[in-house]
């Protein structure tokens, strides 16, 4: 019985990962980040194209929007710390930061605001979702690949259910943060 549950868990995880990677016939858009069972209406907040000029870590980036620079705190995820002077580099922190650099640095992205989260955090960083090439939800992918935890700061956010499902899938697949022996 346990083997059947593990097999089903692995199959569901693979389905979620294949769906995220685009191995389906469904189109991916910023308003439909491809987690099964969820269909979103278009966001009432506008999405904006920007260029990533710096990756601080897996959940914070700098962008150039028009001719202005902004710091973005990505909504819905938290990656292990690498730059907080009060803390040592955390398990998987460097890997999460390196993956973010690989996917985001010097790339055009779509930034999507979420009215449930406000415009900025307590440090003045803009709060946004980040979509690589305008379609691939970076936050969802970081969680699915095990580089980040789902993170709800205060209020539920637009893609919260998808991100929570992605974290369950990553845990079940034992990837990244949840890989055996990754963070002991």
Q: How would you characterize this protein structure?
A:
- The chain is α+β, with helices and mostly antiparallel strands.
- It has a single domain (2-178), classed as OB fold (Dihydrolipoamide Acetyltransferase, E2P).
- The protein has four helices and eight strands; from the N terminus they run αββββαβββαβα.
- Strand 1 and strand 2 (60-65) form a beta hairpin.
- Helix 3 packs parallel to helix 4 (160-173).
- It is globular, with a radius of gyration of 16 Å.
- Mean pLDDT is 80; it is low at 21-44.
Distance between the termini: 29 Å
Q: Which structural class should the secondary elements be placed in?
A: alpha+beta
* Order of the strands making up the biggest sheet: 1-2-3-6-5
Number of strands: 8
| Main beta-sheet annotation | 5 strands, mixed, barrel
Taking all Cα atoms into account, the compactness measure Rg is 16 Å
CATH class membership:
Mainly Beta
How would you describe the shape?
globular
Strand content bin: 15-25%
Reported CATH architecture:
Beta Barrel
CATH topology tier name: OB fold (Dihydrolipoamide Acetyltransferase, E2P)
Task: Provide mean pLDDT, rounded.
Answer: 80
Total individual domains: 1
The parts where pLDDT drops under 50 for at least 5 residues are 21-44
What labels would you give this structure?
184 residues; 5-stranded mixed beta barrel; 29% helix; two-stranded antiparallel sheet; alpha+beta
Topology:
Layout: H1 2-21, E1 47-57, E2 60-65, E3 68-74, E4 77-78, H2 93-104, E5 108-112, E6 126-132, E7 136-137, H3 138-144, E8 149-150, H4 160-173
Parallel strand pairs: 3-6
Antiparallel strand pairs: 1-2, 1-5, 2-3, 4-8, 5-6, 6-7
């Amino acid at each position: 019985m346990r083997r059947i549950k593990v097999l089903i868990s692995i199959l569901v995880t693979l389905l979620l990962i294949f769906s995220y990677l685009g191995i389906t016939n469904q189109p991916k858009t910023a308003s439909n980040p491809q987690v099964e069972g969820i269909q979103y209406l278009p966001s009432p907040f506008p999405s904006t194209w920007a260029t990533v000029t710096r990756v601080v870590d897996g959940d914070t980036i700098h962008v150039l929007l028009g001719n202005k620079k902004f710091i973005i705190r990505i909504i819905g995820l938290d990656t292990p710390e690498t730059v907080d002077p009060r803390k040592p580099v955390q398990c998987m922190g460097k890997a999460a930061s390196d993956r973010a650099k690989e996917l985001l640095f010097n790339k055009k992205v779509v930034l999507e605001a979420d009215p449930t989260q406000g415009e900025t955090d307590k440090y003045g960083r803009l709060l946004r979702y980040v979509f690589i090439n305008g379609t691939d939800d970076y936050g969802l992918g970081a969680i699915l690949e095990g580089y980040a935890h789902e993170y709800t700061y205060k209020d539920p956010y637009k893609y919260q259910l998808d991100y929570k499902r992605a974290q369950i899938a990553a845990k079940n697949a034992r990837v990244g943060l949840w890989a055996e022996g990754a963070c002991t």
